[in-house]
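Give me the fold.
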Amino acid sequence: DTASSLNNLAGLYYSQGRYGEAEPLYVEALEIRKAKLGDRHPDTASSLNNLALLYRSQGRYGEAEPLLIEALKIRKAKLGDRHPDTASSLNNLAAMYDSQGRYGEAEPLYVEALEIYKTELGDRHPDTASSLNNLAAMYDSQGRYGEAEPLYVEALEIYKTELGDRHPNTATSLNNLAEFYRVTNQYQKAMPLLEEWRIVQRSRQETQTRRFAERTRTLGKMYEKCNRLPEAISAYGEALSLFNKLLGSKDQRSLMMKAELARLKKRVKRTLSSRQ
C-alpha cells in the first residue's frame, strides 16, 4: 500500500543519513495510517516509532519522546504488555533516555524489555541478545562494570550460537566486549576479541573502512602496552596504510599515525641497542 511504500523509501533515506528527505515521507505515511486505520492501530504505532527514531537520530528528543510514548501505549493496548513489539517500544524509549543520560528512567524499561524477550522469544533468541547488550552498554556507561560484563558475555555467546561466528551482530558484540575490556584495562581479554573481530571483518570484506583502521590502531596500542612490540609495529603499519588510503597522507589522522609508528620503531631500536 501507499503508506508502506512511503515508509520503505523513508527507511532507505534514513539509513543513508538523508534525514531531510526521509522526514516528510515518514510524516505522510503516519498521516495515511491514522486516516485509514485509526489512531490506535499497531501499524500507526509503527509509523510513530519510525518518525520518532528519525528525530532521536538527529537529537530532536523533545519531538521524539511523545511519539515513542504514544507508540508504546498503542502496542500495550492492542498487542498486550508481553508482546515482542511492546518490548521493542520499551527498548526504543529506554534508548532515548539512555542517550540523554536519563539512566534512572531508562533502566526499568530496558529490564522490562529484556524480561519480555526472554519469556516470549526465549533466553537464546537474538532479540534477547540485543536487549542484553543494550542493558550492558548502559551499565558500562555508568561505570557499573560488574553488572555490564556478564551481560556482554551472554549476548556474545547467544549471537555466536544462534547466528554464527561471522554474522554482523556477532562482530558488533565482539567489538563491544573488546572495548569494555580495553577501557577497564583488561588487555589480555580484549586483544583476542579484537583480533577475532578483525578476522570477521576480513571474512566479510569490510576492511577498507575508517572504523577498521581505528580498531587496528587500538589493537596496536594494546600490543604496545603489553610489550608485544613486533605485533604493535605491524598493526600500526596496517592502520597507517588504511588512513593514507582512506583519508590521504596529509590528513591529521594519517600524520598522527605516522608519528606513532615512527616513535615505536625508535623505541624498538633503542631496546635492541641496549641489549647489545
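The chain is about 85% helix and 0% strand.
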